[in-house]
Every structure is written in structure tokens, then in C-alpha cells.
Amino acid sequence: MPAWMILVIGMIVGAFLASMLLARTRHGKIQAEYEAYILELQAEHALALQAAQKRSVNTSRAVLKGKMAEQFAPVLPDFNYLPADARFLGDPIDYVIFDGYTAFRDGEGRAEDIQVVFMDIKSGQARLTAGQKAIAQAIEQKRVRFETLYIQFDE
After folding, report:
1. Three-class HEC string of the chain
2. pLDDT tens, position by position, 55-67
3. What are phi and psi of 117, to 5 degrees?
């Protein structure tokens, strides 16, 4: 075999081996970059998960505090009515207060002094819901009435 042919075959084998080596090196670089990117994403995910858990706990605490405030409102100093006059509903509004009813029932007040008050308790940044605003509007527009339902039992 002539020397030039051995040289050409050697160059071809060398080029092939060099390209394999470069491909492997390039592949290793790409793999390392992706592994670093995956680690970065995992760290970001862990931080986001931790922040979401903290938000969830804080929201849960706020809701529980609000529920407690609703229940204890009649015994707090800012509640301007007799607790005995307040009836807890919870939804869509928290209380219906029959202001003056206890005094009337005990013979110390007049029927004309009784007022019906609808009250919702809010804490923190809470605002009235659309349904609560609609109820307040109905009350303000005097779309309120009293009904009696008589039920007959056959014996």
C-alpha cells in the first residue's frame, strides 16, 4: 500500500476520531448546562413552593381570625348592641340584631323602639362581597318585609 494512501486513511481515521471527541465534548457541555439549568429550576421551585405555603398559612390564619372575630363580636367593646339582641347567621351576612327587643321583652321598652339591624363583621383588608352589597342595597331601598308561614299538622 502506497504511503500516500496510508496517510489519507490516517487522516480520515484521525478526522473521524477528532469529530467523535469534539461531539462527545460538546455533548458533555450541553448536558452540564442542562443539569445546571435543572438544578436552578429546582431551587426556584423550592423557593416558590415555600412562598406559596407561607401565603397559604397566612391566608388561613386571616380567615380563622375573621371567623373568630365574627363569633366574638357581640362581646367586644365596639359592638354597640346587647349581645342578647344579636342573632348570628354567618352567611350571607353575620348578624341580624333586634335592637331593643330584650328591653321590650322584659317590659322595659316599647315596640316602637325596636330596630332591626343587619350587620356583617370584617377584619383586616376584608370588604363586602357583591352579594352582601346587594343585600345592603335592598335594605337601603326598603325592599324588606315580614312574613308569617302557618303550617297545619293533621292529627
Report:
1. CCHHHHHHHHHHHHHHHHHHHHHHHHHHHHHHHHHHHHHHHHHHHHHHHHHHHHHHHHHHHHHHHHHHHHHHHHHCCCCCCCHHHEEECCCCCCEEEEECHHHHHCCCCCHHHCEEEEECCCCCCCCCCHHHHHHHHHHHCCCCCCCCCCCCCCC
2. 998 888 887 887 8
3. -120, 130
Contact 65, 126 (CB under 8 A): no
Q: Is the pLDDT of residue 148 over 90?
A: yes
Closest C-alpha among 93, 149, 147, 90 to residue 117? 93
Domain range list for the chain: 1-76, 78-140
Distance, CA of 150 to CA of 142 (rounded, Å): 25
106 residue type, one letter: D
Instruction: Record the cell numbers describing residue 5, joined without a space.
Output: 494512501
Averaged pLDDT, 117-145: 93
